[in-house]
Specification:
The chain is an alpha+beta fold. It is built from 18 helices and 32 strands. It folds into 3 domains: 398 residues, TolB, C-terminal domain (Neuraminidase, 6 Propeller), CATH 2.120.10.30; 156 residues, Leucine-rich Repeat Variant (Alpha Horseshoe), CATH 1.25.10; 124 residues, Cytochrome Bc1 Complex, Chain D, domain 2. Helix 17 packs across helix 18. It starts with 6 loop residues before the first strand and ends with a helix.
């Protein structure tokens, strides 16, 4: 069977959608209706246009509120030309789109927030809207007091520090998770009385653009530069993040059908005339958790704007380790031949369908990776796209939804107008969006009147999801009791049992014998589900008692060769190594994980795209093996960047961008110390201070003078 036989395509690949890229012809931008004809979707589904320019432009992310209104972050200064002119001008927006007649098309637009710096993600709550912005880690609450769709005032919800990293490598994600925490790619936030408190993930950064969750609260990250469309998804948020192989065969092979050769990294398949031989810009992931989506319920979608496609990932948990597979082997879930099709964000909507944002533009690469002068191959790319007219295609934007044929979608929600007691029934809804939203609304409002109905749902709920969401809603209200949790521990469903293990942690820490006995009974079973064993191990790791450590050791002895436990052991060793580092190196890890990791890798060994190493290994690098006296040379490289081969070897990325204007002198010193002590400890000398960076800058100025 041909890989394309399971797909519908509404026009010939060699008709409207096809562009010969071996001539100097300009590539025309298509109308939304014309572009939609070039997009392949799964058989049994069709696309519908939800919004397009001028109603929406440059949509970088979006989210729905409790009544189904859509908040869209418009990046109106993102790469408006090849020089990134005005990139930090405060003219970006958050707009609110509403479907007033229920036909699936947005027909009312208001500018909710205007004249701001590149808003990144939004989370509408019950009475306010949380927003985070570029260049800061703070989170703001916006209020629409007169309900006209325009924010009237704002107040700080979480005061974070400045974040001057590259705009493609800063904070992302404001996602309410199952355990009533708000997850971002950098931290876990707890909302209480209008304020947010922060705690870190076990890794300093877990995703680049977007974050997703499943029904059990696992978080799913992606790396763009690291060419990874799904990673770090083994455990629910808040537990260790392990570095293991999480992909099935051929999973990381992209199957684009777009001919345009405009990539930075990722390669070009000359034989098949298609962009990308490896992933280049994985982003904007979401989990499809809707019953009307048929065989694709439980699928994660990851956007690939350089490849002009959306990957669909199916997960197998049978061995206890989650493994991601391409749901459409030899093809992609959604893909287009249109040069300007740039999917960057996806969400599972209130109606049960899949929504995704298409920035529809020529340049989809931030200026640091878009040189226009010099001898680097990327400069040739610049001349190509300029000649094709791609630089002129900006300020467009389309939002689509993928709809199953001949299936009625779910009704439009009115949760912001309903009582907590009314919302309880939605915890058993066939659409995960409704379950999440109902839980969040009940917890935020402190729904005392809902407690009886919630407890009833724990005992007699019709589905695992109903029981699990009811338990966590009670936890969020502070109304969980030991009887309910013990009941969950003894439930026949493994998913409910795992929830019981997580919720039992306070009682286990206190040494409650009933909970200890329940855990012992599960471990003594002849065929305990491996995921349950892993959850018990991880929960014990949170207790910090002698008994919990002893039980962990026993579990590890019986399961130490399982890949999950190998990964957990590595994570524990990593934690110990980090604890041994000095303050500067610990700060440097945050910088390293924010940008360096995508090319140099978690272990400092470099990242491969196919057989090509993107960047040189840093572990036991000659630059660091000679000790910290080499720091001025390393500093110059960090400040100015570098291109071309290193010691005669060419690397896939071919360029290291300059960080001299992006990070402070102290941050550059910190990341040098992290690399030096982390992987070259025996040869690294005294820690480098910011004065070394200052000296390197001054020396370069003197040479230029």
């Amino acid at each position: 069977m041909s890989p394309l036989s399971c797909f519908s395509l509404t026009c010939s690949l060699f008709g409207l959608a096809s562009v010969s890229l071996f001539a100097a012809d300009r590539i025309p931008a298509l109308s939304p209706e014309e572009s939609m004809k070039t997009i392949e979707v799964p058989e049994g589904f069709h696309l519908e246009l939800v919004a397009s320019e001028p109603m929406v432009e440059e949509p970088a992310s979006f989210v729905f509120d409790g009544n189904g209104a859509m908040y869209v972050c418009e990046w109106r200064t993102y790469m408006q030309d090849e020089h990134a002119s005005g990139a930090k001008d405060r003219v970006s927006r958050v707009v609110k789109l509403v479907d007033t007649d229920g036909d699936g098309k947005m027909d009312r637009r208001t500018v909710f927030i205007d004249n701001v710096l590149l808003p990144r993600t939004v989370l509408p709550l019950h009475d306010r809207v949380l927003v985070n912005f570029t260049d800061e880690n703070s989170v703001w609450s916006y209020f629409d007091d007169d309900e006209d769709g325009v924010a009237d005032r704002r107040e700080i919800a979480y005061e974070g520090d400045a974040n001057k990293g590259n705009i493609e490598h800063q904070s992302t994600g404001l996602m309410w998770n199952l355990d009533n925490r708000i997850d971002t790619n950098y931290a876990r936030l707890k909302y209480e009385d209008g304020q947010l408190s922060s705690s870190p993930h076990s890794e300093s950064r877990i995703s680049q653009w977007g974050i997703a969750r499943d029904d059990d609260g696992r978080i799913y990250g992606t790396w763009a530069g690291g060419a990874n469309p799904a990673h770090s998804f083994q455990f629910p948020a808040g537990y260790p993040i392990v570095s293991i192989n999480e992909h099935g065969p051929d999973y990381q092979t992209p199957y684009s059908i777009c001919e345009t050769e405009d990539q930075s990294s990722g390669g070009y398949d000359v034989g098949n005339k298609r962009v990308l031989t490896n992933f280049s810009a994985s982003s904007g992931q979401t989990m499809i958790r809707s019953g009307i989506m048929g065989p694709y319920e439980g699928l994660m979608t990851t956007c690939e704007p350089v490849g002009r496609f959306i990957r669909g990932s199916r997960f197998d948990w049978s061995s206890g380790k989650g493994v991601a597979y391409n749901v459409t082997p030899g093809a992609e879930f959604i893909r287009s031949t249109d040069t300007y099709f740039r999917p960057v964000w996806s969400e599972s909507g209130p109606d049960g369908t899949l929504y995704f944002a298409d920035m529809y533009r020529g340049i989809i690469q931030e200026k640091n990776w878009f040189p226009t002068e010099g001898n680097h191959p990327w400069v040739k790319r610049y001349h190509r796209v300029r000649d094709w007219g791609m630089l002129d295609v900006t300020r467009h934007g389309r939002i689509y939804r993928l709809v199953p044929d001949d299936v009625k979608v779910f009704e439009q929600p009115r949760m912001l107008d309903q009582s907590g007691e009314e919302l309880v029934a939605y915890l058993d809804h066939h659409n995960g969006w409704w379950r999440d939203q109902a839980q969040m609304q009940i917890v935020l409002r402190g729904g005392e009147t809902a407690v009886f109905a919630l407890k009833k749902m724990v005992w007699v709920g019709k589905s695992d999801n109903a029981r699990i969401n009811a338990l966590w809603t009670l936890e969020g209200l502070g109304k969980l009791n030991r009887k309910l949790v013990l009941g969950a521990l003894e439930h026949r469903s493994n998913r409910v049992r795992m929830t019981g293990v997580r919720l039992s942690e306070p009682w286990l820490k206190e040494g409650d014998p009933a909970f200890s006995k329940a855990i012992d009974n599960h471990l003594a079973e002849e065929k305990t589900d491996p995921q349950l064993v892993i959850q018990i191990y991880n929960s014990l790791g949170r207790l910090g008692t002698r008994q919990s450590r002893e039980l962990q050791e026993l579990i590890f002895k019986s399961n130490g060769d399982h890949p999950i436990f190998v990964g957990l052991a590595d994570a524990e060793n990593e934690k110990k190594q980090l604890a041994a580092l000095g303050a500067s190196s610990k700060r440097g890890q945050v910088v390293y994980k924010s940008i360096c990791v995508t090319c140099h890798g978690d272990r400092g060994l470099g990242i491969y795209e196919g057989d090509t190493l993107l960047a040189p290994p840093l572990a036991e690098s000659p630059l660091f093996m000679q000790g910290s006296e080499q720091a001025p040379l390393v500093a110059r490289i960090l400040i100015n960047g570098m291109t071309g081969p290193l010691r005669g070897r060419h690397y896939g990325e071919g360029v290291m961008i300059p960080f001299g204007q992006t990070y402070s002198d102290q941050q550059l010193a910190d990341v040098i110390n992290y690399i030096g002590y982390k992987w070259n400890r025996r040869s690294w000398g005294e820690p480098v201070g910011k004065e070394t960076i200052v000296g390197a800058r001054e020396a370069m100025v003197e040479r230029l003078g």
